[in-house]
Amino acid sequence: MPEHPAPPTPPETAQSPTPPGSDYSPAYKNFVLLMLTLVYAFNFIDRQILVILQEPIKIDMGLSDAQLGLLSGFTFAVIYVTAGIPIAYWADRSNRRNIVAISLTVWSGMTAVSGLVQNYGQLLLARIGVGLGEAGGSPPAHSMISDYFPPQKRATALSVYTSGIYVGILLGFAFGGILAEAFGWRKAFMIVGIPGVVLAALLVLTVREPLRGRWDSATANADRPSFKQTMAVLRQRRSFWYFAMGCALTSFIAYGNGNFLPSFLYRNHGMSIGDIGLVLSLVSGVSGAIGTIAGGVLADRLTLRDRRWYAWVPLIGGALAFFPYFYVLTSGNTTAILVVLFLLSIANSLYLGSSIAVSHAMVPPRMRALTSAVLFFILNMIGLGLGPFLTGLNSDLLASVSGEDNLRHAMLITNCVGILAMLMFFKASQHVIDDLHANNGTRQNL
C-alpha cells in the first residue's frame, strides 16, 4: 500500500488511532520508532546500571557472586516475566502507548529508589520494582511497531527497536562507570533513574496509538481472542517454541557472561570500573546495535527468497560467535580480546529482531503483544533468570579449585550452551514455513 503524509490532526484528536484507509508519513513513523527505541534504551540503562555498579556494591555490602546473580538475573526475571503476561494481555485490548508510558515511569522511579537502599534485602525489593515496571515495556511496543510498519519492513523496524538494548548498554556502562567513580553507586542510581520519568511524559505528548491490525484484514482485527485462544494458536506453531528456546539459550550466554563481563575485566585483567564502563559501552553497545539491526535487515531481504532465513540468520550468527568467545575468556591479551569481543558481539546479536518478526507473522494482530510476552517469558526466565545466577553460582563453587580463575571457568561453561541454541534455530527452520502458512487459516477462523 503506498504511503503518503497523514493530514494534519486537530489537537483534540491528536492521540486517536489512525483511521482506516490512511497511514502516517514515513517521517512520523520513523520518529515513533526512534521514541520507542529510546524508551527501550532506558529500559536497559536502568537494567544494566546494576551490572557496572555490582563490584562497588559487592564490596560495600559484602555480597557473593551468587547474590549478584540473583540481583541482576533471577529475582528481576521472575517478576519481569510473571507480570509481563497479564500486562501484554491488557495491551492487546487497550491503549498500548499509555501502558508503555506508565511502565517507563515505574521502572525509572524504582531505579532512582535503588540509590536509597541500606541493605541487600532493600536493594532486592527495589530491583523487583524495576522488573515490574519493565514488564510493560516491550510487548506493547512490539505490537505498536507491527501496526506502524508493513510485514516486509517489520523485521528491520523491530531490529531497530531491539537495538535499544545496546544503546542502553552503551549509555549504562559509560555513564554508570563515570558516575560511580565521581559520585558513588548510590547517586549513580538516582541520576540515571530520573530522566526516564520525563521521557514518559514526552511519549504521551508526541506518540499516537496506531490502528490495531493496520496491515491485516478487517476480519483478523475484529475479534478479541482470549488468553486461552492465543495459547491454543501458539501451541500449534511448533517453530515458535524452537525460536523461543533458541532466543532463551542465546540470551543465557548473553546475560550469564555479559552481566559478569565487567567483573571479569576487573578481576582478571586489572581494569578500573571507569575504564571498563567506557570500553564496554563501545565494545558491547556499538557492536550489539550493529548486529541487531543487521539481523533484521538480512531477515527482511533474505526471507523474500526463502522464509527459513528467519531461523538461519540467528543460527549462522550463533555459529560465528561460538568459538571466538572461548578465546576472549582464555587469552591474557586485553586489547586483543576486546577487538574479538566487538566482532563476535555483532554475530551474536543477529537473532532477536528476526525472531520477534516471525513470531508476529504466525499470529493475528490481536495476539501479538501476548505472543511477544510469551516469547520474552521463556527468553527471560532461562536467559536473564538462570544465566547470571548459574554463572555466579558456578563461580562460587569453583573458587576452591580454580582460585582467581573461578569466574573465567564459570563463563567458559556458560558459553557451551551455544551448541543447544544453534540446534533450536535449526529445528525452527524445519517448521517455520508450515507455521506461517497456518496463520492464514487461523485469521479466517477467528
From TrEMBL:
<feature type="transmembrane region" description="Helical">
    <location>
        <begin position="370"/>
        <end position="390"/>
    </location>
</feature>
<feature type="compositionally biased region" description="Pro residues">
    <location>
        <begin position="1"/>
        <end position="11"/>
    </location>
</feature>
<feature type="region of interest" description="Disordered">
    <location>
        <begin position="1"/>
        <end position="21"/>
    </location>
</feature>
<dbReference type="InterPro" id="IPR020846">
    <property type="entry name" value="MFS_dom"/>
</dbReference>
<feature type="transmembrane region" description="Helical">
    <location>
        <begin position="188"/>
        <end position="207"/>
    </location>
</feature>
<feature type="transmembrane region" description="Helical">
    <location>
        <begin position="239"/>
        <end position="256"/>
    </location>
</feature>
<feature type="transmembrane region" description="Helical">
    <location>
        <begin position="335"/>
        <end position="358"/>
    </location>
</feature>
<dbReference type="InterPro" id="IPR036259">
    <property type="entry name" value="MFS_trans_sf"/>
</dbReference>
<feature type="transmembrane region" description="Helical">
    <location>
        <begin position="27"/>
        <end position="45"/>
    </location>
</feature>
<keyword id="KW-1133">Transmembrane helix</keyword>
<dbReference type="GO" id="GO:0016020">
    <property type="term" value="C:membrane"/>
</dbReference>
<keyword id="KW-0472">Membrane</keyword>
<dbReference type="Pfam" id="PF07690">
    <property type="entry name" value="MFS_1"/>
</dbReference>
<feature type="transmembrane region" description="Helical">
    <location>
        <begin position="66"/>
        <end position="91"/>
    </location>
</feature>
<feature type="domain" description="Major facilitator superfamily (MFS) profile">
    <location>
        <begin position="32"/>
        <end position="433"/>
    </location>
</feature>
<keyword id="KW-0812">Transmembrane</keyword>
<feature type="transmembrane region" description="Helical">
    <location>
        <begin position="309"/>
        <end position="329"/>
    </location>
</feature>
<dbReference type="GO" id="GO:0022857">
    <property type="term" value="F:transmembrane transporter activity"/>
</dbReference>
<feature type="transmembrane region" description="Helical">
    <location>
        <begin position="158"/>
        <end position="182"/>
    </location>
</feature>
<feature type="transmembrane region" description="Helical">
    <location>
        <begin position="410"/>
        <end position="426"/>
    </location>
</feature>
<keyword id="KW-0813">Transport</keyword>
<dbReference type="InterPro" id="IPR044770">
    <property type="entry name" value="MFS_spinster-like"/>
</dbReference>
<feature type="transmembrane region" description="Helical">
    <location>
        <begin position="276"/>
        <end position="297"/>
    </location>
</feature>
<feature type="transmembrane region" description="Helical">
    <location>
        <begin position="97"/>
        <end position="117"/>
    </location>
</feature>
<protein>
    <submittedName>
        <fullName>Arabinose efflux permease</fullName>
    </submittedName>
</protein>
<dbReference type="InterPro" id="IPR011701">
    <property type="entry name" value="MFS"/>
</dbReference>
